[in-house]
Amino acid sequence: MVKSSKYKMAGGNGLFFPILGFASIVAFMYLSFGDLFSVVNYKNEISLSFVGRNGSNFVVDDKLFYINGWNSYWFMDHAVHDHTRPRIRAMLQAAAKMGLTVCRTWAFNDGDYNALQISPGQFDERVFKALDFVIAEAREVGIRLLLSLVNNLDAYGGKTRYVKWAWSEGVGLSSSNDSFFYDPSIRIYFKNYVKTILTRKNTITGLQYRDDPTIFGWELINEPRCITDPSGDTLQDWIEEMSTFIKKIDNKHLLTVGLEGFYGPKSPKRKTVNPEFWAADMGVDFIRNSAHSAIDFASVHIYPDQWFKNKSLEGKLKFVADWMHSHIEDGERELKKPVMFTEFGLSDLNKGFDPAQRDEFYKIVFDVIYESAKKKGAGGGSFAWQFLVEGMEEFNDDFGIVPWKRASTYSIITRHTCRLAKIHGGVTPITGNLKNICNGRW
């Protein structure tokens, strides 16, 4: 998600809030969560193990691990500045209070405001330390991170930025942003970036990223599409090369592609499961792209508002359940790998939108995951797009929520945590007390 750069820090000097306004945000968080801030000063009290895979299941310390997660793509960007850095801790601690276990966030910002990679191979240490901070904060709270390495979209640089770099240096083969996937020079740029990230030594924890179990895994690219080659061959070649490259550097962490889940032109499901006919022409193929041996789990997104123009809400919600069941079936029968729904959201721009509709949408997603978990199935987890804390309206989109502002939504999220914990013993290394979270929700 994140279609444009408007959801980032505004202006060259950042977005500054009055001291009184920021203090009110902190006060609200404290009053809303009581003892949430009592964990601020503890250091490394939570021991995390690497998440592994056993067939179509995630495992931690030989226990099945089903994930109730969320997206806060903005962590690194907000960790750069003193006045916005507290939001990371507030969001992580609020998530721990809900029993959430994994956050998906960006480990990239290419040549844009607060850029991590200023130009090919040139990094801003100030921003790298912000990413260090995000990982260290997550480690202290006991929440893992799924880190995405580049964007298919233009926000935060994306593959278009890499193409512009190659073009400006006179080595680019084409000005098409799809040349990101096939231009040899750009492939070298990206490999150098990936190696720098994976081997980065965190200035706070002292651990190289590839050695830190706080990181759940890596995502190659957010929502890849290669429309100039609808056969899918170009993207598949890129996936195979980059995933193999990553695994040679880091074989401790899990790896996924970052797909939306569309079935390609050779898939029998392209006409029966895809949202509409155009989805088969995006240069992607869920089964083929996820099958390579270096890819540990499949990823799927769920955006019925964006994918359908004329379908009723009832029709969209029916699609959601069918879409999820189809991909979980693929994970179990074809791929023999877990399937994660790494983004799902319902837009508040719909005509006649009511927050109760979003609650219903969340329930459907959570129920499908729960039913899979009961059978030890391949539906490994789900990640809402997106969660924010108070005072972040500037960075919101039509899918974002502050989950504790609506009691019914908050209850749906925590109930899902508790149902998953009850089934498999609760792999929940969180600062909150699971028994307290789940009192009355078992």
UniProtKB/TrEMBL annotation:
<keyword id="KW-0812">Transmembrane</keyword>
<keyword id="KW-0472">Membrane</keyword>
<keyword id="KW-0964">Secreted</keyword>
<comment type="similarity">
    <text>Belongs to the glycosyl hydrolase 5 (cellulase A) family.</text>
</comment>
<dbReference type="InterPro" id="IPR001547">
    <property type="entry name" value="Glyco_hydro_5"/>
</dbReference>
<keyword id="KW-0326">Glycosidase</keyword>
<dbReference type="InterPro" id="IPR045053">
    <property type="entry name" value="MAN-like"/>
</dbReference>
<keyword id="KW-0378">Hydrolase</keyword>
<protein>
    <recommendedName>
        <fullName>mannan endo-1,4-beta-mannosidase</fullName>
        <ecNumber>3.2.1.78</ecNumber>
    </recommendedName>
</protein>
<dbReference type="InterPro" id="IPR017853">
    <property type="entry name" value="GH"/>
</dbReference>
<dbReference type="GO" id="GO:0000272">
    <property type="term" value="P:polysaccharide catabolic process"/>
</dbReference>
<feature type="domain" description="Glycoside hydrolase family 5">
    <location>
        <begin position="49"/>
        <end position="387"/>
    </location>
</feature>
<dbReference type="Pfam" id="PF26410">
    <property type="entry name" value="GH5_mannosidase"/>
</dbReference>
<feature type="transmembrane region" description="Helical">
    <location>
        <begin position="12"/>
        <end position="33"/>
    </location>
</feature>
<keyword id="KW-1133">Transmembrane helix</keyword>
<dbReference type="GO" id="GO:0005576">
    <property type="term" value="C:extracellular region"/>
</dbReference>
<dbReference type="GO" id="GO:0016985">
    <property type="term" value="F:mannan endo-1,4-beta-mannosidase activity"/>
</dbReference>
